[in-house]
Amino acid sequence: MMNISPEKLDMLLKTAGQRLGKDPQVLKNQLQSGSLDGLGIDQNQQRQIGGLLKDPQAMAKFFEQPQIKDMLQQLMKGR
Asked: Residue 30 domain-assigned?
């Protein structure tokens, strides 16, 4: 299982916030509350992400995917 440290999570939120034009703290609050409005994604994608966020096993499996690992490494390089 992949564990993301709070520092790495903050870095990912900062990167995502920059790309989405959102404050990282606002983005974090939205993700924690399950409110994905304003992220530029459709309702179906919001439901999928919401389900993923509520299921720790599914989230761990998601982060173990090679393409997701690669994407995270690329995001962390560009910080």
From this structure: yes
Confidence of residue 1 (pLDDT cuts 50, 70, 90): very low
Please report whether residue 1 resides in a domain: no
The residue segments making up the domain with residue 42 are: 6-77
Look at residue 52 and tell me if it is in a domain: yes
- Cβ-defined contacts of 30-35 (< 8 Å, 24+): none
Could you say which DSSP state residue 65 is in?
S
Give per-residue pLDDT as tens, 20-74: 788 888 888 887 777 777 777 788 877 777 777 778 788 788 888 888 888 878 8
For residue 23, tell me if it sits in a domain.
Answer: yes
Distance CA 10, CA 72 (A): 13
